[in-house]
Every structure is written in structure tokens, then in C-alpha cells.
Amino acid sequence: MIPHRIMIHHSLTVDSQTVSTSAIRRWHTGQIGQSNPNLPNYNYYVLHPMKEIGYHTLVELVNDYYEIIMGRMFDEQGAHVRAHNQDSLSVCCIGDFDNNEVPPEQWNKAVQLVTSLCHQFMIPTDRVKGHNEYDPSKTCPGMNFNMDGFRLQVGQGLKF
Predict the structure, then answer these.
(1) d(CA 23, CA 42)
(2) What residues contact residue 82 under an 8 Å CB cut-off, 6+ apart?
(3) Nearest-10 crossing angle of helices 147-157, 104-121
(4) Which residues, 6+ apart, have CB-to-CB distance to 137 below 8 Å?
(5) CA-CA distance, 154 to 3, in Å (whole number)?
(6) Do 97 and 10 touch, CB atoms closer than 8 A?
(7) What is the dihedral of CA 127, 140, 102, 86, to 10 degrees?
(8) What is the pLDDT along the chain (160 residues), one digit of tens a residue?
(9) In whole angstroms, what separates CA 6 from the centre of its chain?
(10) In what order do the strands lie in the sheet with 88-93?
(11) How far apart are CA 106 and CA 141, in angstroms?
């Protein structure tokens, strides 16, 4: 896969300073949740598991520092935005940015990561998109995640 876009997501979960990436991986691979849609904690992936977490990278608070965690390899197609996975990389910021502000340290780490990916793969900032820009039924990466401001900061760090 040759990436031409970067998609930004949030996990819509509270980052509790634990290994949230691990829980997302278990969810995507169908190891947790219920298979019955009428039960609480229904998980589609129990009956249709992915082989790996759907995101390429995740930005998460581990202990007291924001870390960049690898999910899928960059040459593998992700599973994060229906009909737009074949040529995009994904970055998931762990947190619920519909109900909370993005912590500045996490924001800066995500800007650093996306700037590096844009530089490495020659992706212009107008191809850095929030999930909701391809699926208006979603708020992802969250109502408090300013995609225009994010793109502006990424663009300020680019060298091409």
C-alpha cells in the first residue's frame, strides 16, 4: 500500500493511563464483547474478527508520557474508514474528544507524528482528514478536536 492520506481518529474512550491500545486490539480482534446485538457490550468483531487492530498508530498516555504506539504496519491496509482504507494511514488519539479537550501534550505528540508521516510519504496537509470528513455520521476525531488547527500546525512543521 502506498499512502496518499492520513486519517485522524479518537477512541471515544477515556484514557485511564492504562494500556488502552491493548483493549482496542482485543475489541478489534473479537476477544472481548458480546456476539448478540441485543446484549450490552455488543461487539460486531466477535463474529467477524480483524487479524489485527485497525489503526496504524495510536497516541496514548502511558504512565505520565504520551507514547506513539504501532498498530498495523504502514504497508498494510488499515481498517478505520469504510471505503477509504486502501490508500490511507490512520492515527488514533486515545481519548473522548466529544466530551473532553485534547490534552496539549497529546496534541503535540500527534502533530509531531503526522508531520513526520506527511514528510516521509510526501502527503500534503490538505490530505490529513478527520474520520468525520469522510463519514458525516461520525464526530470522530471528536467535536473538541480542531482539524483545521491541527492541519495548520502540521503544515508549519513540513519541509517540502
Answers:
(1) 15
(2) 135
(3) 60
(4) none
(5) 17
(6) yes
(7) -40
(8) 889 999 999 998 776 655 588 888 888 889 989 999 998 889 888 999 989 899 999 999 988 899 999 999 999 988 888 888 899 999 999 999 999 999 999 999 999 999 999 999 999 999 999 999 999 999 999 999 999 999 999 999 887 6
(9) 9
(10) 65-70, 57-62, 88-93, 5-10, 128-130
(11) 13
Nearest to 141 by CA among 12, 10, 13, 7: 10
Q: What is the CATH number of domain 5-18+52-157?
A: 3.40.80.10
Question: Which residues partner with 34 through β-bridges?
Answer: 42
User: Cβ(55)–Cβ(72) under 8 Å?
Assistant: yes
Domain boundaries, the chain: 5-18+52-157
Rounded Cα distance between 148 and 128, Å, is 10
Helix (H, G, I), strand (E, B) or coil at 65: strand
Total count of residues recorded for the chain: 160
